[in-house]
Amino acid sequence: MRRNQSPIAAILARREITLLVIIVVLVAAVGIRAPRFLQPARQLSILNDTIILLMLTLGQLAVILTAGIDLSVASNLAFTGMAVAMWNMVMPGVPMVVLVGASILIGASLGAFNGVMVSVGKVPPIIMTLGTMSVYRGMVFLISGGAWVSAHQMSESFRGFARFNILGLPSLVWIGVITTALVYVFLRFTRSGRELYAVGDNATAAGFVGVSARKAQFKAFVLSGAIAGLTGLLWVSRFASAQNDTAIGFELETVAAAVIGGVSIMGGSGTVTGVVLGAVFLGIVKNALTVVGVSPFWQMAIQGAVILVAIVANTVVDRRNQARLSARRISA
Amino acid sequence: MADIVQLENVRKYFPGVKALDGVSMTIRSGEVHALIGENGAGKSTLVKILTGIHDPTSGTILVDGEPASFRTPHDSQAAGITAIHQEASMFPNLTITENIFMGHHLRNRFGLLDWKTMEARTRELCERLSLAISPDTLVRDLSVAQRHQIEIIKALSIDARVIIMDEPTASLSLKEIQELYELVRTLREQGTAIVFISHKFEEIFEVADTYTVLRDGKYVGNGSVSDVTTDDLVRKMAGAALDRLFPERTPSIGEVALSVQGLTQAGVFEDVSFELRNGEILGFFGLIGAGRSELMQSIFGVRSRDAGSVTVAGERLDPLNPRKSMAQGLAFVPEDRQEQGVILDMSIIENTTLSSLRAVSRFGFPQKHTERSVTEGLAKRFSLRAARLEQRVAALSGGNQQKVVLSKWLATQPRILILDEPTRGIDVATKAAVHSFVGELADQGYAIILVSSELHEVLGMSDRILVMREGRLVAGFDSEDASAERVLATAIGAAAVEQGA
């Protein structure tokens, strides 16, 4: 039918563009209502709030691409955050580089446990990570004995780690940017990355060419865990407090951000660009409601409704494209 | 016996394929009508037209003498036509009653579901067919044969006058088959018309009254089963000399490339041994379900095996290790393109290089320019029709998707190619291109296994033909000795002709 699609139509047909348009409209609308929303300082604080969600969602993306899900990311974050904060409390002299390495390693091990059970033990990802969500959370209480690590118990460099300024932006944002770039390169330019897509899209066809679904699943869970670990350190540093209920419920926000960003929950389809937009959208909605002065009682319901609208709009555009595609295939 | 449905000169064209080309058929009440034809002869298309899944391109359908059109499955159900599928489509966790009334529940005067009446009705239908099953049994607890019976009851519950049974005995034991025959006879006595699709001639002679033979979508003949012999039917199914062109080759057969010894997977294929030589095209013919695809999957290492060995150039291949098979120069184009072949959401380039990612990568990073040049070369070789190589494979036609699958396998630089139904469901032009390409590869010394359910493709392409039936190799033919009748008769197990083979 529309065999000669114009380049503009091709760009508009992409899901990311729909989402970008929704974001721009949302920011403009909130900006008109409350101009201070558009001030750089406000925008920066939204960015700061969104980075950790973004990073976790990138790990979630890798897992969802293989047709899995990782519900243990928030508990992983809390455990790793608590562990490194306690280490810093006991031995303040240990350099930050070591703590960063440790947080990635601890997180990756927790992810690897999920990965082994899913790929070798054949436990469905949702069941496995629902279990470890509680197990890892329970482990936070076990190591902390129920106590917090507060700001005054942390070393200067630990508290400052997420906040020091480079070229006008806090280190947290830079770490987020670097992580995003790395995941982008991993998914788009490495063999392992491409295998995640292949396995999630059609595990049988991938198996027929010797691409192992198990290995791909394992790698995805390790990546998700490693990122969760790193964000654990960033979280406790940024808020200068490690608590037992840190980031509780946050795993569902990562799933929401991924879905808003057009990641297919069935696996095999989703992009880093989409995830960035999904996370940004969620971050803006959360902030905007406060700025506009919506009562806290209403915020949650409205937030949910806005998320649904975004997902539906996104899906409708996508479905229309699919229909056009199959019409073209038949006429070809 | 009244005429219920008449088809007159029905045609169904798909882009590039004439699936049905002028078929006429009359279905009468109280009659078992056998629909006969090779795989791909057009039987399924005919069934889909009868059940409202496809609209015919031209031709008329009369129901009780009145012109009718089946635009949706609902229309044909309303006319009393129901098909019972090979793979019974049921809800395993629901009871028999719930399954039977799914979609047309009975309600009581309060608008609530009237389970009591539905259950009574189910019991009544079971009794009518003398089946001793309780209506509140869960379907998952039933045997395959019982599920078939429930499908039939389901058809009767909506007053079906025509029941189409597609290979109903495929997975039944001898005793169950006898019970099914009984059931078919009971239905016939009660005036139901039955369209019986089967490859097995003994069944046709056992239960059918009349027959219609299709070949390549064309109507070949019909008549009364009591007037024909097995030989007559085989001849009608197989058809005359080839009117299609296959590449002319003078094969030069070389060393043994692949040797299979005693390969067995219990219940699927048994004790299969054969050798494949360089420069040879070895055709595998058999009916659907004969175990050919499963055998090939096991050879390649994507399906397990219980016994036997596969040897390539003196090296034994491990079971369930496709990587090793690939390293030994094996390539496998699977039968189901969409399920096993392509990754729809990926681009042409990504699909092509997925099998050889290691070769096109440096330090784990696939090199874009290498990938592109590999894909470009193969796309040119197959004259792939696509706007761009970055295009998603989902946007390509079936024929072009198959070219991508072939490209993917040639990218691994194989020496032995296993092609499982490489031309199924693709247009005539692409078919010819695949044929001439396969011929070229054999001339270049590649060893090729060609699995096909299309008799003439196997006959026209192969240097040697092996026939499988019910998991076993039952015969081998050199291309000079192979005739359509002999190969088909061996595959079907038609006794009279087999003795001569």
Question: How would you characterize the overall build of this protein?
Answer:
The complex is a heterodimer of chains A (332) and B (501). Chain A is built from 14 helices and 2 strands. Chain A has 332 residues and is mostly helical. Chain A has one domain (7-327): ABC transporter involved in vitamin B12 uptake, BtuC. Chain A has a two-stranded antiparallel sheet. In chain A, strand 1 (165-166) and strand 2 (169-170) form a beta hairpin. Residues 1-5 of chain A have low confidence and may be disordered. Chain B has 501 residues and is α/β, with parallel strands linked by helices. Chain B has a 6-stranded mixed beta sheet with strand order 6-7-8-3-9-10, sandwiched between helices. In chain B, strands 16-19-20-13-21-22 form a 6-stranded mixed beta sheet, with helices on both faces. Chain B has a 4-stranded antiparallel beta sheet with strand order 2-1-4-5, with no helix packed on it. Chain B is globular, with a radius of gyration of 25 Å. The A-B interface holds A 189-192, 194-195, 197-198, 201-202, 204-211, 268-269, 325, 328-330, 332 and B 15, 300, 302, 322-323, 326, 332, 334, 339-346, 350, 354-355, 357-358, 361, 364-366, 385, 392, 394-397, 408.
